[in-house]
From TrEMBL:
This is Carotenoid cleavage dioxygenase 8. It comes from Lactuca virosa. Belongs to the carotenoid oxygenase family. Keywords: Dioxygenase, Iron, Metal-binding, Oxidoreductase. GO terms for molecular function: carotenoid dioxygenase activity; metal ion binding. Transmembrane segments: none annotated. Fe cation binds at H240, H290, H357, H547.
Length: 554
């Protein structure tokens, strides 16, 4: 599949000349930033105080506007879509040909209703298209049913991560409850991640199964729902499937009979086939599985004591743990399933933990090559659930300089295969190496499931209220190298390998930065030195995004 934003300077009405230039690095001052008006684009016209104001206006609202612009990461996107070439400062490697897609919840306001949590926003997809040292950027909203209905009726119509539509009367409330159980009222707002399947299709995902949406990476168009053709049912799945050229592995929590289905889908099909099932050892419901790790031969099923909560699902107003509940008494477990047979080969109790993201896992062998256990690493929040409520927008927007980001670390699970009842959870390196912030990780995908040395993630330079550095973790030397730009919020550092590379860190790391002035830029670091090699300013700051994928040019 080729991926290229259709580029023609005439498409970019009103853009600074350098942005419609075919030449990179040729004088990149945009002057006073403005929202460029692409004739094809529709102004959203539904958000924030800044929307209706020309950006150079001197008005009593100016300070407010400036303050709003300083927080581009947490401010709703102003335009439905945009595309154009960016000026590049520095040099993008000639080998970097393809598209980095990043998905995230970029629109948090609908009508006069303002969402409260980071995870609620309607999905904004951003594409960075690299070609022969040039960089095109485009963004656009994903046309989920939830987004389209909200735009049409100017109100929330589906249940989002923390928001529930208001009911006009009791009957409507009862109808909504029925729709919750059938899944009809759940959101399909695919705002969490984006993956390219082995067959080339590109799918945006969230935690509701219905929120799997196929897009066209060349122009970011929404192509339609990804319909699973099997009859596995269920309403939710892990937001982070494991996707390789040969398979798509997913976990489906079973909320009725607490457990997890492990399923596999082959490229070119829409049919998930069950590999096996894990029964929960704690209760009353399965633990939240935002992500899970795999090794070459095993799928690791985490059972976190932060569990789905039926009561909280029914609530109209969110609790600090949203749809979940913390059950320390139910304990924490890690289960290991053989991918080929579906049999459980280990199931151990582990210390309590809280994680969104597993980083990687691998098998440990003895001198005869027999597997004696697995190691699984994650971004672990010190068994403290407060991070979830810290991601409320009000919290993110109103930082007053105190150090309020809870500590996190690279949590390393050691799961023995000798029948032990317990596994270990240790720190893979001293968390001070990365400022005790740790989330939004990536690795070299060639090392998925294998012994690896490097991870890239967001760390912290304190004081802060959100991870504000990019960090390269060396798990062998137990050291980190950090990138920091004062006041900036960087998104997930995404590793792309140089074609033909033999070293694990031979490649680049791509991130999108919201800077302290309310502006934003794409940043390209050399993954080996972790030094900046290029940056390209966006026409305006973009909202924070979550996860991305690389679509190589073929
Ligand atoms: C953005 C992110 O990381 C997580 C998004 C999670 C979502 C949208 C979860 C939605 C859910 C519902 C709408 C009801 C059922 C439970 C749950 C999966 C939390
Ligand atoms: C952004 C985030 C956590 C930051 C904590 O330090 C988690 C995102 C989770 C969803 O993808
Ligand atoms: Fe995630």
């Amino acid at each position: 599949m080729t991926s290229s934003f259709p580029f023609s300077p005439t498409r970019n009405y009103g853009l600074p000349s350098c942005m419609v230039s075919n030449h990179a690095s040729d004088g990149c001052s945009f002057g006073q930033p403005s929202f460029p008006k692409n004739k094809k684009s529709r102004e959203l016209n539904i958000v924030s105080v800044a929307t209706d104001l020309p950006m150079v206006v001197q008005s009593p609202l100016w300070k407010e506007v400036a303050q709003e612009r300083k927080l581009a990461a947490w401010t709703s996107i102003q335009q439905e879509r945009w595309e154009g070439e960016l000026c590049v400062n520095g040099e993008i490697p000639q080998w970097l040909n393809g598209t980095y897609l990043r998905n995230g919840p970029g629109l948090w306001d609908i009508g006069d209703y303002n969402f409260r949590h980071l995870f609620d926003g309607y999905a904004t997809l951003v594409g960075l298209h690299f070609q022969n040292g040039h960089l095109m950027m485009g963004h656009r909203q994903i046309e989920s049913d939830a987004y389209k209905a909200a735009r049409k009726s100017n109100k929330l119509c589906y249940r989002e991560f923390s928001e529930v539509p208001k009911h006009d009367n009791f009957l409507a409330y009862i109808g909504d409850l029925a729709n919750l159980f059938s899944g009809a009222s759940l959101t399909d707002n695919a705002n969490t991640g984006v993956v390219q399947l082995g067959d080339g299709r590109v799918v945006c995902l969230t935690e509701t199964i219905k929120g799997s949406i196929v897009i066209d990476p060349s122009n970011l168009d929404t192509l339609g729902k990804f319909e699973y053709s099997d009859s596995l049912g269920g309403l939710v799945h892990s937001a982070h499937p494991i996707v390789t050229q040969s398979e798509f592995l997913t976990l489906l929590p079973d909320l009725l009979n607490p457990g997890y289905l492990v399923a596999r889908m082959e490229p070119g099909t829409n049919e998930r086939k069950v590999i096996g099932r894990v029964d929960c050892r704690g209760g009353p419901s399965p633990g939240w599985v935002h992500s899970f790790p795999v090794t070459e031969h095993y799928v690791i099923v985490p059972e976190m004591p932060l569990r789905y909560c039926a009561q909280n699902l029914l609530r109209a107003e969110p609790t600090p743990l949203y749809k979940f509940e913390w059950h320390p008494e139910s304990k924490a477990f890690m289960h290991v399933m053989c991918k080929a047979s579906g049999k459980l080969v280990a199931s151990v109790e582990v210390p309590l933990f809280v994680t969104f993201h597993f980083i990687n896992a691998y098998e440990e062998t003895d001198e005869d090559g027999r597997v004696i256990g697995v190691v699984a690493d994650c971004c672990e929040h010190n068994a403290d659930t407060t991070i979830l409520d810290n991601l409320r927008l009000q919290n993110l927007r109103s930082w007053s300089g105190e150090d309020v980001l809870p500590d996190a670390r690279v949590g390393r699970f050691k799961i023995p295969f000798d029948g032990s009842s317990n596994g270990e959870l240790v720190e893979a390196l001293n968390p001070d190496e990365h400022g005790r912030g740790m989330d939004m990780c990536s690795i070299n995908p060639a090392y998925l499931g294998k012994k690896y040395r490097y991870a890239y993630a967001c760390g912290a330079q304190r004081p802060c209220n959100f991870p504000n550095t990019l960090t390269k973790i060396d798990l062998e030397k137990k050291k980190a190298k950090n990138w920091y730009d004062e006041g900036a919020v960087p998104s997930e550092p995404f590793f792309v390998a140089r074609p033909g590379a033999t070293k694990e860190d031979d490649g680049v790391v791509i991130s999108m930065i919201s800077d302290k002035n309310g502006e934003g830029y794409a940043l390209i670091l050399d993954a080996s030195t972790f030094e900046e090699i290029a940056r390209a300013k966006f026409p305006y700051g973009l909202p924070y995004g979550l996860h991305g994928c690389w679509v190589p040019k073929c």
